[in-house]
Write a structure and sequence with these properties.
Mean pLDDT of chain B: 81
Number of helices of chain B: 12
Distance between the termini of chain B: 37 Å
Number of domains of chain B: 1
Shape of chain A: globular
Oligomer: heterodimer
Helix content of chain B: 25-40%
Structural class of chain B: alpha/beta
Order of helices and strands of chain A: EEEHEEHEEHHEHEHEHEEH
Structural class of chain A: alpha/beta
Strand order of the largest sheet of chain A: 6-9-10-3-11-12
Radius of gyration of chain B: 22 Å
Number of strands of chain B: 23
CATH class of chain A: Alpha Beta
Low-confidence stretches of chain B: 98-102, 121-134, 137-144, 217-224
Shape of chain B: globular
Number of strands of chain A: 12
CATH topology of chain A: Rossmann fold
Largest sheet of chain B: 11 strands, mixed
Helix content of chain A: 25-40%
Strand content of chain A: 25-35%
Number of helices of chain A: 8
Strand content of chain B: 25-35%
Low-confidence stretches of chain A: none
Number of domains of chain A: 1
Largest interface: A-B, 34 and 30 residues
Chain lengths: 245, 488
Amino acid sequence: MLEIKNLCAAVENKEILKGVNLNVKQGEVHAIMGRNGSGKSTLANLIAGKNNYSVTSGEVYYKGKNIADISPEDRALNGIFLSFQYPVVIPGVNTTYFLKEALNAKRRNREKDEINAADFMRLIKEKLKEVDLDETYLKRSVNDGFSGGEKKRNEILQMLILEPELAILDETDSGLDIDALKTIAHGINQYRREDRAIILITHYQRLLKYAVPDYVHVLMNGRIVKSGGKELALELEEKGYSWLE
Amino acid sequence: MNEMKDTLKKENTIIDEAISQDYKYGFVTDIEQETIPPGLNEDVIRVISAKKGEPDWLRDWRLKSYKNWKKMKNPSWAHITYPSIDYQSISYYSAPKEKKELKSLDEVDPELLETYNKLGIPLQEQKMLAGVAVDAVFDSVSVVTTFKKDLEKHGIIFCPFSEAVLNHPNLVKKYLGSVVPMTDNFFAALNSAVFSDGSFVYIPKGVRCPMELSTYFRINAANTGQFERTLIIADEGSYVSYLEGCTAPMRDENQLHAAVVELIAHKDAQIKYSTVQNWYPGDKDGKGGIYNFVTKRGICKENNSKISWTQVETGSAITWKYPSVILKGDNSTGEFYSVALTNNYQQADTGTKMIHLGKNTKSTIISKGISAGHGQQTYRGQVKIMKNAQNARNYSQCDSILIGSECEAHTFPYIDVRNPTAQMEHEASTSNIGEDQLFYCNQRGLSTENAVSLIVNGFCKEVFKELPMEFAVEAQKLMEVSLEGSVG
């Protein structure tokens, strides 16, 4: 589904990614772990198409196609979803309205009819339960006045509603207490399916206890320095990252 | 380094594309106009007055205003730049020819109806439009007045200003210039001398006006200044909601527009005045466009009265406008809700004045400025709490949003408090439409165009919700149209 070949990227002339290789197939869950500044978020944003990075070499293939020239919205419409590390506030824009616009953009792209209001409310109420948010939340502006935990749940909620094919979760677990963490993990497991793929970006092993990955990769200084199964996460938890340097 | 430049360039291109768009209402109606030659002197004023069949007192009032105006100077304190206006090159009167009594809409010049159709306000359907009466002003002379009969039943007077002068001279004489004196400012003085026409509204005691009153203004004759005069009086315990909306045809020369609006709210009365202003803003290079120098002021004359201004300003090359409220009655309330948008080379210096004279008076100011392209946006607001205004309160909030890197936003709040019991709150913010916000929306599958529209409308929400329903929809549409080609 996603194939990254020798990807090198820089921001403001500083090299962040120095040759990343990654292959993610349908049905797989990959965890990418690493310290702050190792390039994890850069990688996530690059896949989603954020344009303030310059790719100096290498390619990203999604569903077999080089996506270098594809706009962020077209990537999204074709099934790439990014759960943001720091979701932005959009004052005055109602959360329900925003979600409905996003869903309808996707439906239009697939030449499906727009969802009607009643069906949408049914859908959103069902998914709200999965992420343990109450309905008052729907009346608020996008991420406006949300706690850190609410913002992350909102990201997962959007993932459940938009049903992407490739979900990249950028530190969706950071700053969460254990209950919120379990809720997020529950959401991820709800989403997980044979025809979908997930990339979990995280510092810690604790999310991976509840949302168990098939593969774990360690990103260090812009390169994947080690890959393994889920047990690698435990090893990292125990030993830290320095033994890999 | 080149890559960085490319990235920046790319971002700017995205924004440019999102905000560039042509004025959709640019067309000139080919109707014969009766226009007097350019120039201004006492004789011209006499001609205007005579053409309208005005009584002597009004002609003299005009002449007195003209004498005052001659002594005054074009104000230069606003944060706007424009070539000096040659007032002798402007024609001060223009009226569609063949004005005759019209019994029904069928008698209206089909071409004029077509013009309104292009504007999306077909007169034919206006009767069916739920609760909206329209006094359509086409250049200087009112052509069609509808709903008058329904209003008459309630004793409400809603008619062209020129008609009120003839039919209700005592009311006009009593209130004209009582809120905006002829000496108030340069443009108000000019208007007082040469005003063409406008609307007159009187709501009798205890009457709640059963429908929104609305007027569509249009500038049509080339080189003809428009000088509307509007006077709205809400007698004791009455209520009225008045809507004003404008679009104007595209042309190259600048057109001067200097209106005066006066509102008078008596005891327990309430006036809600909403404007959607979309005069021709000039082209992408700043050529052409309307100069809009407007004096709008209301007085809460007696206790427990309320005046509320809501404006959505998306048009004009230059906007100079400060709808204000004098809070004279105790417990009276003044409100100002504003969205102003400047794109390309548009300049807007707008805001409000809240003058607190009475006890327990309250004012609220919510101002939202949006600047794109090379737009210049200034909020200028004055809150004055006078000595006897015990327990006066004001809340002001001025937010600006910048789209792109060539535009500017300025805020000039003036606060003058002369009573220690006053409570004042002022909040201000300036932000960019962030790349992060756009990317977030893009990542959810929304195009940049849609995202800009979504963000801007969200930003304006506090003001839009003050607009009557049908206006709110129009306002949102206008924002989208003003910001780009086809944002849906």
